Model the fold of this input.
Amino acid sequence: MHLHILGICGTFMAGIAALAREAGHKVTGSDANAWPPMSTQLEALGITLMRGYEASHLDPAPDVVVVGNVVTRGAKFPAMEHVLDAGLPYVSGPQWLAENVLPGRHVLAVAGTHGKTTTTSLLAWLLDQAGLEPGFLVGGVPLDFGVSARLGRGKTFVIEADEYDTAFFDKRSKFVHYHPRTCILNNLEYDHADIFPDLAAIERQFHHLVRTVPSSGRLIVNGADANLARVLGMGAWSPVERFDDAQGWSARDAQDGFELFVGGVSKGVVSTPLPGLHNRSNTLAAFAAAAHVGVPVETSIEALSRFRSVRRRLEKIGESRGVAVYDDFAHHPTAVEVTIDALRREPSSGRILAVLEPRSNTMRLGSHSGDLAQALSGADLSFVFVRSDLDWNVRDALSDLGTRLRVADDLDALAQDVAREARPGDRVLVMSNGDFGGIHGRILRVLGDANA
Done:
């Protein structure tokens, strides 16, 4: 069967492409933008990528068109207009997955505003190391697997469960399609201001997910999150197990890691390669979910010590003139704050220079602009790129940072400014949910030129 995927370079849709290719289908795709790691994954899989959304991309006609949620009606997407005019079969990515990959599998879904990619990757790794041969679909590229998705030969399938809408013709959250038996609810905050009017609307979608978990399944819930408590207050029909909760899965600071407790009983000290308190919570959630499918705690603890994390999650890109440059996907104030804190906790006497692109729809609309100064306050200096499509004034919103704030509307000028301020021992933390115009390489090049 020939699948053509519209929006193929999105993290989710690239995973669909990988699964379809592994299943033996011919896969092609269209997208307006492409950047690593998804563009390189598609290239490695030998999947033909066409630039733009031209109707000619669908000649000859594929057997089915899989439509990403980036696609809308109108002149911007002539390929979609051609699909409708020609009566070609089409389906959303989540529905294709639900109908072609997930039937008969024990689905473990990871939902939440933050930490989905890391938690999903870790959970897949724990099951893999326990010999369960899981399938998975992650919104990133786990370094231990090298691909964002695989079918797997075992019964289990681990999926990053996104609350964003499914497609222009299906406004339900993606995760309602997955029907998990094990469901992690990591945390819940307001996000996606382009589709959700308020927090209550997102809570309602999370409760739709809760409704799909069978009574023989299990909900793994952050016990410290009041918003998730409200979600469960709408009704829950499955056993609930909590993490970050003294009665469930919890942790206490220990040298070189943390002491793990399950139901108040110590399971020993855990050595972890993942920095930050947020990753401790992610780990507790993954341990609890793995236990639900029979993975012993001891096996998970041992596997964690060898986990290599995910691309673009505090990933060190390079170093020049004694200045290290890191990349992270953080694009919500809470994610920005905990990422800076995680880097701060790593052994170093150098400063942290935060470099942020407010790129997500919510960031560009300014819905989180009032929280951003506090989020960046843990950095020694903050450099913010002023995109032309921002609906808010960066200098005004971040005035509380005072002299620790730098703004620029030109990427080369931004790179020059960062390199000029950086000194040996400093760590440059770049944060964006896009490619940020290759700013990492620009900074490293300018640093290198200055060192010549």
About this structure: The chain has a mean pLDDT of 91. Residues 72 and 168 are 6 Å apart (CA to CA). The two ends are 55 Å apart (CA to CA). The longest strand covers residues 26-31.
